[in-house]
Every structure is written in C-alpha cells, then in structure tokens.
Amino acid sequence: MLTALALNCTLSPSPAGSSTQKMIDEVLAALGKHDVTGDSVRVVDHDVRPGVEADMGPGDEWPAIRRRLLAADILLLATPTWMGHPSSVAQRVLERIDAELSETDDEGRPLTFGKVAVVAVVGNEDGAHKIVADVFQGLNDAGFTVPAQGSVYWNGEAMQGVDYKDLDRTPDAVATTTATLAANAAHLARLLGAQQYPGKA
C-alpha cells in the first residue's frame, strides 16, 4: 500500500475554510482509487521556523512534519496563489526541504530519492503555471521525482470573489487533470519502490 502526505500551504489557520484543502481532498480521493492512502497537514497551524536545516531547535515543529514526509511515498505540495506567487508558507516549506540535500543514506542518496512529488495550485489570479514550475524545480533539486502531468490547478476569474471552495462542482478539466495526476503519481511511486535510483557511494 502506497502512502501520500499533502502539505497545505494556505495562509488561513484552522478551522477556516480552505480552497487549497478542497483541492487536496480531491487529489487524495483520486489517489485512493489507486490504493494510495493519505492525509494532510495545514502547515500554518504549526510553528515551522524559518531556516534551511532539518531541525531549527527548540519549538520547531518541522521535524515532526518531516518524519511524516519521509515516511510517505508521494508528497503533494498544495498552495494558493498570492500576487502571482506561491504562498509564503509554501516558500518556507521549500526552504526547509532544502535541508534534504545534506541528508543522505549509506549509498550517498538523499532520503527523498525514490519519492514522488506532485503540485496543486488554486487562486483567482494568474500565476499557476509559474508556481508549478518553481515548486517542481525546488522539489526536484531536493531529490523528488516528478511524474508526467503531475500538477493540477484552478484559476478563477481575475479580481472576482469566487474561490475554489465556493464552486458548486469541480470543473471537468480539473477533475480530469486530477485523475491523470493520481494515476501517474501512483504508477511512478510503484516503479521507484521496486527499483531505487543508483547510489552515489
């Protein structure tokens, strides 16, 4: 059984509604159709300290999240769009994931090697394509593998008040893209689970 962890990088603390969480729930449900179990963490609810180390000292709650990330086969990083960019929470997550470059196994591989990363973006302004590109680049640098068509996004009408969580139904294009993301992520995770990347030692 494969597992997935979704990091919700909304700026809204619980229990506020979250368009990002709605999309996460849809992606996790789609992954479930491929025998992937998963859950999510709303990062803003935790004291994730700024920095680029795996543990930034007393009070830092990233190490507990990191343990869950490293235990999962698939990482879903989901972010809203703010001023054309990922949220500040998403940027902090990427900065903390940067520490994985110096954490390696006995064969010199980052602990993220063999793990799959997918991205989800919501917002009522432009920026989704650039956000996906930036986030994928960071996650790939840190050792994650990106599947074909491994992202999904929704852009609402610019300068309007409708959010993804306000929609009566999921748009067909989003549902189709989510299904492809899930199928390809699960397929790739199984392949990597059966045959890890070569070691560097």
H-E order: EHEHEEHEHEH
The CATH superfamily turns out to be: Flavodoxin domain
Q: Beta-sheet strand percentage?
A: 15-25%
Query: Poorly predicted ranges (pLDDT <50, ≥5 residues)?
Result: none
CATH architecture: 3-Layer(aba) Sandwich
Number of helices: 5
By secondary-structure content and strand pairing, the structural class works out as: alpha/beta
Describe the structure.
By secondary structure, the chain is α/β, with parallel strands linked by helices. It has a single domain, classed as Flavodoxin domain (Rossmann fold, 3-Layer(aba) Sandwich), CATH 3.40.50.360. The protein contains 5 helices and 6 strands, in the order βαβαββαβαβα. The chain has helices spanning 19-32, 62-71, 88-97, 128-141, 172-194, and strands at residues 2-8, 36-42, 74-82, 85-86, 116-123, 151-155. Strands 1, 2, 3, 4, 5 and 6 form a 6-stranded mixed beta sheet that branches. β3 and β4 (85-86) form a beta hairpin. α1 (19-32) crosses α5. The longest helix has 23 residues, at 172-194. The two termini are 30 Å apart. The model has no long low-confidence stretch (mean pLDDT 96).
